[in-house]
Amino acid sequence: MVESDNNRIAVSYDIGGALRPAGALTGASRARRLRRQPHLFSRQLELPVGADSAVQVQESPFSFTFKVTLPPPLPRIDNIRAQVIHIAPDVTKVCVQGAQIATAHLDELDLPHWRIRLPASSIPEASTASCDSSGLLVLTIPKLESAQGDLPSIVRSLPIDPKNNIFCSSE
Protein backbone atom coordinates (compact mmCIF):
# COMPACT_ATOMS: atom_id res chain seq x y z
CA MET A 1 0.00 0.00 0.00
CA VAL A 2 1.47 3.32 -1.04
CA GLU A 3 0.20 6.65 0.23
CA SER A 4 1.51 10.04 -0.72
CA ASP A 5 0.98 13.12 1.39
CA ASN A 6 3.13 16.22 0.94
CA ASN A 7 6.08 14.32 -0.50
CA ARG A 8 5.82 11.51 2.10
CA ILE A 9 5.52 7.93 1.02
CA ALA A 10 4.45 5.18 3.44
CA VAL A 11 4.92 1.59 2.38
CA SER A 12 3.19 -1.21 4.26
CA TYR A 13 4.94 -4.56 4.03
CA ASP A 14 3.68 -7.83 5.48
CA ILE A 15 6.74 -9.97 6.29
CA GLY A 16 4.53 -12.88 7.36
CA GLY A 17 2.88 -13.00 3.96
CA ALA A 18 6.26 -13.19 2.27
CA LEU A 19 7.49 -15.99 4.52
CA ARG A 20 4.38 -18.18 4.33
CA PRO A 21 5.17 -19.64 0.87
CA ALA A 22 8.75 -20.37 1.94
CA GLY A 23 7.53 -22.20 5.04
CA ALA A 24 5.07 -24.23 2.99
CA LEU A 25 7.89 -25.41 0.74
CA THR A 26 10.12 -26.53 3.59
CA GLY A 27 7.34 -28.05 5.70
CA ALA A 28 8.23 -25.78 8.62
CA SER A 29 4.99 -23.83 8.51
CA ARG A 30 3.70 -25.47 11.67
CA ALA A 31 5.92 -26.09 14.62
CA ARG A 32 5.15 -29.45 16.20
CA ARG A 33 4.45 -29.18 19.89
CA LEU A 34 5.52 -31.88 22.28
CA ARG A 35 2.63 -33.49 24.06
CA ARG A 36 2.65 -34.20 27.75
CA GLN A 37 2.80 -37.85 28.57
CA PRO A 38 1.97 -38.30 32.25
CA HIS A 39 2.53 -42.05 32.12
CA LEU A 40 6.26 -41.75 31.43
CA PHE A 41 7.10 -42.06 35.11
CA SER A 42 6.61 -45.37 36.86
CA ARG A 43 4.74 -43.90 39.85
CA GLN A 44 2.60 -40.76 39.90
CA LEU A 45 0.12 -39.12 42.27
CA GLU A 46 -2.78 -36.92 41.13
CA LEU A 47 -4.75 -34.92 43.70
CA PRO A 48 -8.24 -33.49 43.03
CA VAL A 49 -7.13 -29.85 43.32
CA GLY A 50 -5.69 -27.31 40.90
CA ALA A 51 -2.03 -27.42 39.92
CA ASP A 52 -1.33 -24.20 41.82
CA SER A 53 -2.85 -25.39 45.14
CA ALA A 54 -0.85 -25.44 48.35
CA VAL A 55 -0.19 -29.06 49.31
CA GLN A 56 1.64 -29.99 52.50
CA VAL A 57 4.00 -32.93 51.96
CA GLN A 58 5.56 -34.80 54.86
CA GLU A 59 7.99 -37.68 54.69
CA SER A 60 8.43 -40.08 57.59
CA PRO A 61 10.62 -43.17 57.65
CA PHE A 62 7.60 -45.28 56.72
CA SER A 63 5.38 -43.11 54.49
CA PHE A 64 4.70 -39.98 52.47
CA THR A 65 1.73 -37.90 53.64
CA PHE A 66 0.00 -35.34 51.41
CA LYS A 67 -2.45 -32.87 53.00
CA VAL A 68 -4.63 -30.41 51.10
CA THR A 69 -7.88 -28.58 51.77
CA LEU A 70 -10.51 -29.39 49.15
CA PRO A 71 -12.47 -26.49 47.65
CA PRO A 72 -16.25 -26.38 48.19
CA PRO A 73 -18.57 -28.13 47.52
CA LEU A 74 -17.16 -30.86 49.73
CA PRO A 75 -17.61 -34.52 48.75
CA ARG A 76 -19.17 -37.10 51.05
CA ILE A 77 -16.58 -38.14 53.60
CA ASP A 78 -17.37 -41.86 53.46
CA ASN A 79 -16.82 -42.00 49.66
CA ILE A 80 -13.19 -40.81 49.72
CA ARG A 81 -10.60 -43.52 49.00
CA ALA A 82 -7.31 -43.92 47.19
CA GLN A 83 -7.58 -45.52 43.76
CA VAL A 84 -4.59 -47.10 42.04
CA ILE A 85 -4.70 -47.14 38.25
CA HIS A 86 -2.30 -49.43 36.38
CA ILE A 87 -1.69 -47.64 33.09
CA ALA A 88 0.82 -50.17 31.76
CA PRO A 89 3.08 -52.80 33.32
CA ASP A 90 5.18 -51.07 36.00
CA VAL A 91 3.38 -47.74 35.42
CA THR A 92 1.05 -46.76 38.27
CA LYS A 93 -1.04 -43.68 39.00
CA VAL A 94 -2.68 -42.92 42.37
CA CYS A 95 -5.90 -40.86 42.31
CA VAL A 96 -8.49 -39.95 44.93
CA GLN A 97 -11.83 -41.58 44.23
CA GLY A 98 -15.01 -39.91 45.46
CA ALA A 99 -13.83 -36.30 45.11
CA GLN A 100 -15.44 -35.70 41.71
CA ILE A 101 -17.58 -32.87 43.13
CA ALA A 102 -14.46 -30.94 44.15
CA THR A 103 -12.87 -31.38 40.71
CA ALA A 104 -15.90 -30.68 38.51
CA HIS A 105 -14.87 -27.07 37.93
CA LEU A 106 -11.33 -28.16 36.98
CA ASP A 107 -12.67 -30.55 34.35
CA GLU A 108 -15.10 -27.98 32.90
CA LEU A 109 -12.42 -25.32 32.54
CA ASP A 110 -9.79 -27.82 31.37
CA LEU A 111 -7.45 -26.85 34.24
CA PRO A 112 -4.61 -29.20 35.22
CA HIS A 113 -4.72 -31.25 38.40
CA TRP A 114 -1.96 -31.26 41.02
CA ARG A 115 0.48 -34.03 40.07
CA ILE A 116 3.76 -35.30 41.43
CA ARG A 117 6.15 -38.11 40.62
CA LEU A 118 6.49 -40.62 43.43
CA PRO A 119 9.89 -42.05 44.32
CA ALA A 120 10.75 -45.69 43.69
CA SER A 121 10.57 -46.41 47.43
CA SER A 122 6.80 -45.73 47.52
CA ILE A 123 4.13 -48.46 47.54
CA PRO A 124 1.12 -47.00 45.66
CA GLU A 125 -0.99 -50.15 46.04
CA ALA A 126 -1.13 -49.67 49.83
CA SER A 127 -2.10 -45.98 49.77
CA THR A 128 -4.99 -44.68 51.88
CA ALA A 129 -7.07 -41.50 51.68
CA SER A 130 -9.38 -39.81 54.17
CA CYS A 131 -11.23 -36.52 54.41
CA ASP A 132 -12.59 -34.74 57.47
CA SER A 133 -15.68 -32.54 57.72
CA SER A 134 -13.67 -29.34 57.13
CA GLY A 135 -12.47 -30.64 53.74
CA LEU A 136 -8.91 -31.59 54.74
CA LEU A 137 -7.85 -34.45 52.47
CA VAL A 138 -5.05 -36.65 53.82
CA LEU A 139 -3.44 -39.16 51.47
CA THR A 140 -0.81 -41.53 52.87
CA ILE A 141 1.48 -43.60 50.66
CA PRO A 142 3.70 -46.12 52.50
CA LYS A 143 7.38 -46.58 51.68
CA LEU A 144 9.59 -49.63 51.48
CA GLU A 145 11.69 -50.21 54.57
CA SER A 146 15.34 -49.27 54.40
CA ALA A 147 17.77 -52.05 53.56
CA GLN A 148 20.17 -50.91 56.29
CA GLY A 149 17.57 -51.29 59.02
CA ASP A 150 18.57 -48.01 60.69
CA LEU A 151 15.78 -45.59 59.88
CA PRO A 152 15.93 -41.95 60.93
CA SER A 153 13.75 -41.18 63.94
CA ILE A 154 12.66 -37.69 62.89
CA VAL A 155 9.89 -36.74 60.53
CA ARG A 156 10.86 -34.00 58.10
CA SER A 157 8.78 -31.86 55.79
CA LEU A 158 9.88 -31.61 52.19
CA PRO A 159 9.23 -28.43 50.24
CA ILE A 160 7.98 -28.87 46.69
CA ASP A 161 9.21 -26.95 43.69
CA PRO A 162 5.91 -25.50 42.32
CA LYS A 163 7.19 -25.29 38.76
CA ASN A 164 8.10 -28.96 38.44
CA ASN A 165 6.12 -30.58 41.31
CA ILE A 166 9.19 -32.43 42.55
CA PHE A 167 10.64 -32.85 46.01
CA CYS A 168 13.29 -30.29 46.91
CA SER A 169 15.86 -31.48 49.39
CA SER A 170 17.37 -28.82 51.62
CA GLU A 171 20.31 -31.07 52.47
Helix content range of the residues, please?
10-25%
Distance between the terminal alpha carbons, to the nearest Å?
A: 64 Å
Q: How are strands sequenced across the largest beta sheet? A: 9-10-5-4-11
Given the helix and strand composition, which structural class is it?
A: mainly beta
Tally of extended strands?
Answer: 13
Note the total helix count. Answer: 2
Number of domains: 1
Which architecture would the CATH scheme give at its second level? Answer: Sandwich
Radius of gyration: 25 Å
Low-confidence stretches: 147-156, 167-171
Round the mean pLDDT to the nearest integer and report it.
73
The amount of beta strand, in percent, is 35-45%
Give the H and E element order: EEHEEEEEHEEEEEE
Organism: Ceratopteris richardii (Triangle waterfern)
Protein name: SHSP domain-containing protein
Main features:
single chain, 171 residues, mainly beta, Immunoglobulin-like, 5-stranded antiparallel sheet, 4-stranded mixed sheet, 2 helices, 12% helix, elongated, disordered C terminus
Structural features, described:
- The protein has 171 residues and is mainly β.
- Helices cover 12% and strands 37% of the residues.
- The chain has helices at 15-26, 100-108; strands spanning 2-5, 8-11, 43-50, 56-59, 63-69, 81-88, 91-97, 113-117, 128-131, 136-142, 156-157, 160-161, 166-167.
- Strands 9-10-5-4-11 form a 5-stranded antiparallel beta sheet, with no helix packed on it.
- The longest helix is centred in the first third of the chain and has 12 residues, at 15-26.
- It is elongated, with a radius of gyration of 25 Å.
- The relative contact order is 0.21.
